[in-house]
Write a structure and sequence with these properties.
- 44% of the residues are buried.
- The chain contains 14 helices and no strands.
- By secondary structure, the chain is mostly helical.
- The two termini are 30 Å apart.
- The longest helix has 34 residues.
Length: 372
């Protein structure tokens, strides 16, 4: 990879580190958050990267755990990307908490467990999940594809991913005071979009890596074509879930869904629909476009941008309408615009994720597959 690329990522990291230090020192006041819209851009980053990591973890497990050996060419890079995405996702959640005093108080989560709390389970499970994703990649990088400890590490990473994803779904799905989170429907939405964003990430990363290397082997081309087709299927399923969610939101008689209907008229909702779903789906279902590198790259980039917008749509849909006592002193809809420091958390997360992967491309043999 070129020095210019690493220089660009370095600039992103510097901007992001300035943002992170400012948040840690000055607190959440640098964000445009309040007691109504208290989860926004940093939390959207957490959901985007953590759920993308879940999709990547499943992809990396297809050959080693499920025996689908044709996907070996993607396994190693998917494992590294899963670790990088999960790491920066957890970082986004940390920056969502704000000042150093709050961050230090999180140690009490481990010292004073509350098994009745879904948030406690989410925090604990994501910690173990991150550890075993790294262990899994460590063994693969050593060339241990078929050893017992490598298989065990991969199985634990997959199992912890499922449990952590379940805890995350429960956190939002049981928020009864916020019906526009769509309750138990959230678990389905998370599952479908996690797989879709994971597919988009691996298609984009694979193209970039092979373009730098100068081409693909026949085995990689075959696997790449199959993944692109699955990506198209996942986009179609995600679009169906999107439409189903819209029908529920528009037809519900609960007054809280007015927040969803307001967000549905904004640009970020259109980004999720058109950039994240419709345009990539069109590109992927047309064979002549799907077979081209440009078609795959454009579809993947648009899908990832749209999926990030979708995380913000989900969060704001349930928050922009004040409820309870706050509704007496606030306007019917509270508007939200992210601050520079909120964008900075996303710049930091994206730059760090890409830096980890870029270093892997440069120094590790990410296209490695088992010898037998």
């Amino acid at each position: 990879m070129s020095k210019a690329w690493f220089g660009l990522l370095g600039i992103g990291l510097l901007i992001g580190l300035f943002t992170a230090l400012t948040v840690v020192v000055r607190g959440l006041g640098v964000y445009n958050l309040n007691d109504v819209t208290f989860w926004a851009m940093p939390m959207a980053g957490y959901l985007f990267f953590a759920l993308t990591a879940a999709g990547l973890t499943l992809l990396s497990s297809l050959p080693s755990i499920f025996g689908l050996k044709e996907y070996y060419p993607f396994a190693k890079r998917a494992a590294l990307l899963a670790f990088a995405a999960l790491l920066v996702g957890i970082m986004c959640k940390g920056l969502d908490l704000g000042p150093m005093s709050t961050l230090l108080n999180t140690v009490w989560i481990g010292l004073s467990p509350n098994p009745a709390s879904p948030i406690w389970w989410m925090a604990v499970l994501y910690g173990f999940y991150l550890t075993f994703v790294l262990i899994k990649f460590y063994f693969i990088n050593k060339g241990e594809w078929h050893t017992t400890r490598s298989w065990t590490g991969g199985l634990l990473a997959l199992g912890l991913m499922i449990m952590a994803y379940t805890a995350l779904s429960v956190v939002f799905g049981t928020a009864d005071a916020r019906p526009a989170f769509f309750g138990h429907f959230t678990a389905l939405y998370f599952a479908v979009t996690a797989l879709t964003s994971g597919m988009a990430a691996i298609v984009l990363a694979s193209f970039v890596q092979t373009a730098i290397r100068g081409g693909m082997s026949h085995q990689e081309e075959h696997a790449f074509d199959k993944v692109a087709k699955i990506f198209a299927v996942m986009l179609a399923i995600a679009l169906f879930v999107f439409i189903l969610r819209a029908i529920i939101g528009y037809t519900s008689l609960q007054v809280e869904f007015q927040g969803f209907r307001y967000i549905a008229g904004t640009g970020i909702y259109q980004m999720e629909l058109w950039l994240g779903l419709i345009i990539p789906l069109i590109l992927m279902v047309v064979p002549a476009i799907r077979k081209t590198a440009a078609g795959k790259v454009v579809a993947s980039v648009l899908a990832l941008v749209g999926m990030f917008a979708g995380r913000l749509v989900m969060l704001l849909s349930a928050q922009v309408m004040p409820i309870g006592a706050m509704a007496e002193t606030r306007p019917e809809i509270v508007t939200y615009t992210p601050s520079f420091f909120e964008w900075g958390t996303i710049i930091l997360a994206l730059s760090l994720c890409l830096m980890i992967y870029s270093l892997g491309v440069k120094y590790l043999n990410l296209e490695a597959t088992p010898e037998h």
